[in-house]
User: What shape does this take?
Amino acid sequence: MNLFDTVQPVVYKDGKVLFLDQTALPLSTKWVEIDSIEACWNAIRALVVRGAPAIGIAVAFGMSIAAMDYHGDDMSAFTSHMKKAHSYLATSRPTAVNLVWALNRVCSRIDATRDVAEAKNAILSEALTIQKEDEDICRNIGVHGITLLRDGMTILTHCNAGALATSRYGTALSAVYVAKERGMNIKVYADETRPLLQGSRLTAYELLASGIDVTLITDSMAAYVMGKGLIDACIVGCDRVAANGDTANKIGTYGVALIAKAHNIPFYVACPTSTIDINTPTGEDIVIEERDASEVLSFMGVASAPSGVKALNPAFDVTPNALISAIITEKGVIRPPYSL
Ligand code: MRU
Assistant: This one.
């Protein structure tokens, strides 16, 4: 069986919405059934499902659950019920623009329907379409991304922007998967990505399972490996690209970009065009999620700092456009200057 059949973050099967619990990986493979929008909200906030495109897919199915929860046939009451669900799910995580993009897309289907039953079907169908489209989009990101790589190259990535964060292929890792399909050999160094270890728990897991040569490093080793000439290019995913090309991604990405610049190593951002937010002028305008300090004060659930010490926990940082060599999308590779 193909890796992509086993590591789908969101599955709709027999009328049920299931999230693969990414907080349990790689130690165990557990599926969580999502049966209410509160369960959907909590799962997104707790990173059971995470990664910008996967969050978009998750809320789209969350909206379908909200639609099914409405019992009645009054279209205007149904519409206001769905608007409330939209506002509620929009608060689950603030940084990834794909979340609100998917909510808007699902809601836009309601207007063209004549009754509640038709609207419910349209909402589910839109969620399934968003999921299927993401698969094609991600593969195309890889097809364009591969034009920046040569056989035998080694890339460094940060966080997880792979199959676990999307519908198959991923964004940053898509070029690596497409390269493998074409018989090319691309090696990957994966930053472990403190505090929640998406690099070691998820990226290393899915690349290893796919037979890709992956080496795990701690975040603080990125300068070492780049300084030693071990890295040919960096490729990361992102949660939001501002109109000027500034890009928000997992905390630590900015540092990786600075190190890459210092060593003349290309730094690429890979994302679907739905992650580009022309309504956000610059990186300064991107809302950065602040998470609970306990994630920094502990390691895999075990306290790793003295009780009472303060901790900062921004989940993302912004890489200025000047550090980004190119943005890889499903439509092609965008080079600076960025005027998106
Ligand atoms: O906090 P997370 O795990 O949701 O952060 C995810 C990232 O930063 C990814 O790089 C980004 O969402 C792109 S996923 C294709």
Summary: The mean pLDDT is 96. The longest helix spans residues 116-145. The CA atoms of residues 124 and 220 lie 44 Å apart. Residues 3-139 form a domain with the Four Helix Bundle (Hemerythrin (Met), subunit A) fold (CATH 1.20.120.420).
